[in-house]
Amino acid sequence: MRLFVALDFPDSIRQSLRELIARLKPEFPNAKWVRPEAMHVTLKFIGEVEAGKLEPMGEALSSVHREQPIDLRFRGLGFFPNDRRPRVLWCGLEASTDLAALAASIEQALVPLGIAAESRDFVPHLTLARFDREGCSRHQVEKLVRAVEQLKSYDAGETRQTEFYLIESILKPSGAEYKRRRALAIVKEPAK
Length: 192
Hints:
Blueprint: E1 2-7, H1 11-24, E2 32-33, E3 41-48, H2 54-61, E4 70-80, E5 88-95, H3 98-110, E6 125-130, H4 138-150, E7 155-161, E8 163-170, E9 177-185
Antiparallel strand pairs: 1-3, 1-8, 2-6, 4-5, 4-7, 5-6, 8-9
């Protein structure tokens, strides 16, 4: 099974992102645009694991907590690696400081189970579209960059998250389908 750990967000933000994509898609119809209903804030991509590891992973992640819920604001647009040779169009995330700490704690909780820690820094974002270099003319890229420049400070909304999820990604010809395998509290409930 293919797994990852992520935060979810409300439909009001998905609707705002749907409207944003509808504005940008005509500028670059060749891009692989992400369906808003499939978006999530990835905290840790795990990859393929044996089904028997699901329960131990859930147990390890249940020990991960922060002192406060995670506040997120979905604001700003940009490109990876840059706007001269874009591969990914992203929506930025402004988050409470606990978000990076939460991602780091998730990494550390999974290392004893044989899940390698990331070598790259955690950069919270939402992928809006991916670009194929062969399908991109210089003119199309410049047109898209201009369109994004006008929306650079786009604000899709804010949310407060109290849970994160261990999610299974089921790859299908129509696109990935996601199944929540475990919901985990961000803030530890007091002992009774």
